[in-house]
Design a protein that fits this description.
By secondary structure, the protein is α+β, with helices and mostly antiparallel strands. It contains 15 helices and 15 strands. Helices cover 54% and strands 19% of the residues. Helix 2 runs antiparallel to helix 6, helix 8 runs antiparallel to helix 9 and helix 10 crosses helix 11. The N terminus and C terminus are likely disordered.
Length: 513
Amino acid sequence: MSKKNKRTFFGGIRHMAIAKKITLLYGGIFSFSLFIISLFMTLNITAIQQHNIRRELTYTISNIENYLKQGKKLSNEALRGLLDNKYVEICVYDQIEDCFYYSHFGEGPSLIQSQEFNLQKDNGNLVKDEELREKRKKAFEEDGFKITVQKESAGNSTEYILENNRNQQLMLISTSIPTKDRVYRVEAFKLIDINSNFLKGFIVKLTMIDFIGIFCAFLIGRYISRRMLQPVEAIRSAAERITIEDLSQRIDTDGPDDEMKELTVTFNSMIDRLESSFQRQNQFVSDASHELRTPISVIQGYANLINRWGKSDPDILQESIDSILTETEHMSALIRKLLFLAKGDQNRMLVQKQSVTLNEIANEIVKELEILEVNRQVIFDGQDKAEIWGDSDLIKQLLWIHAENALKYTKDGDLITIRVWKDKKNAYVSVGDNGAGISKEHLGKIFDRFYRVDQSRNKGISGTGLGLSIAKWIVDSHFGQISVESQEGKGTTFTNAFPLIMRPKKEELKKES
């Protein structure tokens, strides 16, 4: 295969549908496993059969040995009674009596009758004669058998695997059993009924089973892949149905707690966030349009008034100009705040952080309030020096938002308190007043954009409802937290917490030096 074709082949797999990949992977793994198992069975079927026959022959010889060592008299009937397997043939040669005992009826097989049992003794120990092996080999050949395997086993046993001209194999174990007064020669054999024809048939059947198994594996793999990818298909269908006008579509989360369910829950959660974001955006646009519509209507009304009567009436002209300037200033402030929040939402706001001291910034706010002669009693409590990593301009803007709110909702002569303190981890700056306060039903919504307490509207207090939203963004951009405590009619306190700049202790500096 050329490199081009190879790239095309793997490229085709890489761009294949996930369902097809799962089917191919499942079917391939199953097919490979089935091939390995079949190969192992084919290679070991003969060895397994020989092991079973060897165990049967050894067990039969062991029964005969136990019988002879008990001093019992051996006969053909007794020999047949010792056999547990009727397919095992036994021949026992008694050296003293010079006779044979067989486990079968009638004449013995030619294989056993033709064997010569020449036993010799050397200092009372039984040994094997090398000439005996040659004679036995010739005898096997005369009977049409050839020795394919011959090995010595434990004790005086010899194991043979014999094969005749009809491709039939048998296993023969020859051993000697010494007793008190004599020595017996015992031979046991059994036909190995796995021949080449059987093996060929076995391989053919096993191959057919493998093909059927592989075919079923790919069918099952296809079914499993479709079942597994049903949530993905549901997500795809839901994604097609979702539009900006309709974000209510969700996927059913019934089923087992698996990765697909987690994916479905994550997708639904994403749509929830998108829906919430679109709702906030729509609300934002609606509120912004409402806030801009009012000053534009006022400007348009005064412009029409000037056009009709203001040219000849100086009082109407001056009143119209003042109102237009006021509404223009209001619109300008609103647009600046909207642009600030828009840049913050898009992460385009430049935040230049450095080491700043909250005490210094809070002290600047106090001095500016005194210069403005706000007719309020301003108290500053900043004994603890609190350093944070932040943007001094944004922190000052944050404190001015709280200070302006305190000015709006307090009367002349009321108290405004600015405090700075710290603990082991955080620095805190708070702005409190003893003004109108906020009811509990409104506390959870005051940081929403364009949200203004209805009571403040009735008082005719100016504002856009964006100040606290900007304050919260500034605190969040400094990895801090903002909280509010308020009681209606008793006042409000906003507290801002920022992480302290952790400086090494003097002992640590000495160790480093």
